[in-house]
Write a structure and sequence with these properties.
about 350 residues, alpha/beta, Protein-Tyrosine Phosphatase, Chain A, Immunoglobulin-like, elongated
Length: about 350
Amino acid sequence: MNNPDKKTAPGKQDRKAKSRLKRFTLWFLVPLGLIGACTALALYVKLSINCNFNTVVPNQVYRSAHPSIQKLSQWKKKYGIKTVINLRGSGFKGYEEYSKAVKGLGLNLITLRFSAKRPPPTPVLHQLIDALSNSNKPILLHCRSGIDRAGMASTLAQMSIGNESYDDAIDQRPIWSKHAKRQDGYIETLFEDYEADRIEAGKSTGSWTEFHTWAMNQYHPKYYRILLEHAPSIQARPGQKLSFPIKLTNKSKMPIPAGQAGWEFGIAVFQGDSVKSYPDKQFGKRARLPREDLAPGQSLELVYKLRIPNEPGEYELKVDLIDENRSYFGRQGSKVTNLKLHVITDQESAQ
């Protein structure tokens, strides 16, 4: 009979503990390690050997990492690829050779510049939407690794070409991202902004019709914030051309790329509402920003040449920043400023 009061020697206890640890290692950690190794190998094969190639919409849209010309030639024969949409832009090393080789295969090449680390620029997003709609199919979408940018574009393709709902199409986004989420934005901000706007409006995420309307008319990267400062009121004679100084300060946490491809910002002075609709009338050509970035906290002064109406009276005007696609910054949180214009009569001018 075992004696309950009998104590096990310390050395024997240590040996039993080590034995249990060995059994745990053999039966749990080793299989887990093998699973991890197999998963890593499968991921390596998918990313490196198969170039992260996936079907987005059968027989119409595919996605991948940046392909070699040999891979592209194989995919053309196997899947009938006709159009390649390169989401990396033209700034990477070897682009010219790549472009010539793609066109040498008889493929149509569309080059658009997106960054996985930043929200899509409004005009470039519009170009992608147009390319998905009007390009010869099948289409191959690719970025560098076939993850973030290709995932974003594939989501749009699922909705616009595959007729999927937003909730189903959003599954095309990457399971994991190469890039940490940044405070000043990243590519999936596009979808987060859309979902937030739909929730605020009390509406479902819907399908392509709803997303397309929002993307073309309301979307603007929210990490750009500007402050406009100017005189609250001015006085002028009918028909006069008046130079009106406006100070602009970048209140964002990153530069406003005023002179880069795809961006062309300018100051607009107008009547009407730039937040919920388009202005009724502009009072001059846009005062464009210089051809260099505007750093966070940096200010500059622009001169807006006002066209004064011929009719005397009081005019309530608004001032906002706008890009070439008529996307107003007031829609995304920047403050639209007021300007009172008093067009004086001849009698007032003589006084």
